[in-house]
Amino acid sequence: INNLSALLYAKGDLDGAEPLLREVVAGFRDTLGDGHPSTLSFIYGLASLLQEQGKLGEAIPLFREELEGCAARYGEEHKETRGSARNLIDLLREAGRRERKAARFVEADALAAQYELE
Fold first, then answer.
1. Residue-range definition of the domain harbouring residue 52
2. What CATH number is associated with residue 59?
3. Which residues contact 107 (CB under 8 A, 6 or more apart)?
4. 63-112: per-residue pLDDT in tens?
5. How many structural domains are present in the chain?
C-alpha cells in the first residue's frame, strides 16, 4: 500500500494517494506505535499531502503530532525535531495568511522562539 500511495503521490494523484497513506499511517501506529521513527515519517508524509491539497486544518494537528513525537524521541535540539518545528511554523504562517487569523501567527512565532528559528 505504501508503494502505491507513493506512486500516486509522485504522479500528482493526491486524492488517490490520501486514503492509502491514511491506511499506512494507521498500520504503522498499530504495529510500531505512535512514536516510532517510521510512524512519524509517515505522519509527516500524510500531513504534507494534506497541506498540498489545501486541507490545512487537517494537516496542522498531524504536523504538531510529528513535532511532539520527534521532540519526545530525539530531544528539542535534534535536527529532526528542529526540521519538524520549521515545517509546522511554515504551515501555521500559511494558514494564518489564508484564514486571516492572527492566532496562527502568534503560535508560529512562539514555536520559532522556542526552537530559535526565524
1. 2-114
2. 1.25.40.10
3. 92
4. 999 999 999 999 988 999 999 999 999 998 888 887 777 777 888 888 88
5. 1
